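FAQ: What does the model actually see?

It sees only this:
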Amino acid sequence: NDGATLGRVLFYDANLSLNNAIACASCHHQDKAFADGMALSKGFEGKITPRNSMAIINPATNNNLFWDSRSSSAFDLALKPVKNHIEMGMEDMEHLVKKLSGITHYPDLFKSAFGSTEITEERIANALAQFLCAIGSSNSKFDQGIDQAFKNFTAMEQMGKELFFSE
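And it is asked to produce this:
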């Protein structure tokens, strides 16, 4: 719980971006299944990303993360947007470690999560991954539909499902 709590604080903290302008949550809105609902997402300097932010759906059990499946675990995924030159721009992780070390609430959160106040790139990724893995869906309308041959879907939802899964 302490690791996931730290990860949640990090997820909503714009200090993870180079210019303190964007957090993970800026593009992953809880009310939009942790996506942003945009065709293309906006990065930390207002630049536009080549893709939109994916919804975060069951990353603990999903091994094809990002649109191009370039990550196979939440741990591997956790810092890629942070380091990306368009998304959050924090290419120098030592800078991020120093930055977070200077924020008064982080040492105690890291101590609770990891047993010491030391802040490292690996611990940041680990905490973010723990929070991401706590995001799960197991009772959505789609989940329920699997057991019902999707009889719970409206005609429009059926069309959308068919289109989504078509070639």
